[in-house]
Amino acid sequence: MAIRKIAVMGHPVLRQQATPVPEKEISKPEIQNLIQDMIQTMFEYDGRGLAAPQIHESLQIVVMIWDFDPKIKPYIQVLINPEIRALTQETSSCWEGCLSLPGLRGKVDRPNKISVQALDAQGKKISFEAEGFTATVIQHECDHLLGKLYIDKIKDLSLFGFSRECTQFLIQNEAINPE
User: Fold this and answer.
1) Chain segment 72-93, per-residue pLDDT in tens
2) What are the residues whose beta carbons fall under 8 Å from the beta carbon of 79, sequence distance 6 or more?
3) Which of 1, 64, 123, 159 satisfies CB 3.0 to 4.6 Å to 26 for a cystine?
4) Alpha helices (H) along 20-166
5) 22-52 tens-digit pLDDT
């Protein structure tokens, strides 16, 4: 297990469509070690989630800290070859950041409710629905598998900037003056 280098915006791996992982390969040490490296790297860089392309591996694997339900002890959710489908036209706006765009933040609108089908770390099929912030995090991480970054979804570039300034001037202002 190792902490891997994060690919940052401008590296071509972040703009490639990632390759699906064959089901029979999931149990192999190479994939299991990659998943462990992703988890370690996510924690090292203080991320909520991480997609394999972010550590220079163009494979359809995502890891996330699953702490969205206060009734359940947090755990690591692994999604392999995820397929996402919007369940509503309604969107939620969220200030997003990304390990591949260090120090930056932007406001992104995404579908508020989604369905997810994927394989877990053992290759077992899983499916579930997610909404709100949970749906945002899943969509953000899975976009990496499609060669997309959150900046591609920002509609108003005046709501994109360095984290410190966004927090001080934009996010704080929203809390004081909600629409």
Assistant:
1) 899 999 999 999 999 999 999 9
2) 61, 62, 63, 64, 116, 118, 119, 120, 126, 138, 141, 142
3) 123
4) 29-44, 132-145, 163-165
5) 999 999 999 999 999 999 999 999 999 999 9
Beta-carbon contacts of 131 under 8 Å, excluding residues fewer than 6 positions away, are 112, 113, 114
User: Is CATH 1.20.1250.20 the right assignment for the domain spanning 12-94+108-152?
Assistant: no
Reply yes or no on whether 141 is catalytic: yes
pTM recorded for the entire structure: 0.92
Distances (CA, A) of 93 to 37, 72, 155, 169, 173: 31, 25, 11, 17, 15
10 Å CB burial of residue 35 (0-12, 13-18, 19+) is buried
Q: Which of 141, 165, 174, 179 is catalytic?
A: 141
Instruction: Please give the Cα distance from 140 to 138 (Å, whole number).
Output: 5
